[in-house]
Amino acid sequence: MALEIEGTLAQKLPVQSGSSARGPWAKQEFILEYPDGNFTAKACFTAWGQEKVQDLDKYQVGDKVKVSFNLKSREYNGRWYNDLQIWKIAPAGAQPAAPAQPAPQARPAAQAPAYPQAPAPTLEDMPADSDGAEDLPF
User: Which of 23, 33, 52, 55 has its CA 20 to 30 A from that of 89?
Assistant: First the structure.
């Protein structure tokens, strides 16, 4: 499941690294503040892998960012833990590059539709209740 959220980079935690049977690994967690109704909420995200950690290094605390992430859960000793693993981080408001398309041409006045615009309906246009009873089945 891929999700996206925009917010402010509130805190960057230290980089953690080590070695496993599959080779060296690195991860860095960071806190993102995001609007939640009338309040702000915080969530802890994880950048797994050296490439993602380097992507996170481009941003400083206070920067507005857009984070694309996957939500993962795992069980350990009867308890469940959630992990928000990022797969992309970009400046907030950045739009993906779209292929260039020509702008649509405006229709000349000579080709305007020949039908007139009908006025919007009013309360007087509504049918009157015949007996005042509700006709809904529930």
Answer: 23
Q: What is the pLDDT along the chain (138 residues), one digit of tens a residue?
A: 579 999 999 999 999 999 988 889 999 999 999 999 899 999 999 999 999 999 999 999 999 999 999 999 999 999 999 999 999 999 998 665 444 455 555 555 555 556 666 677 776 766 666 565 666 665
Q: Are 43 and 27 in contact (CB under 8 A)?
A: no
Determine the Cα–Cα distance for residues 44 and 2; give it in Å rounded to an integer: 16
Q: φ, ψ for residue 111 (rounded to 5)?
A: -100, 20
Nearest CA-CA partner of 63 in 97, 89, 37, 36: 89
Query: Which CATH architecture fits 2-91?
Result: Beta Barrel (2.40)
The residues that bridge with 47 in the sheet, in sequence order, are 28
Task: Give the DSSP H/E element, type plus range, for residue 26.
Answer: strand 23-36
Task: Please state the domain extents for the chain.
Answer: 2-91
Phi, psi of 117 (to 5 degrees): -80, 130
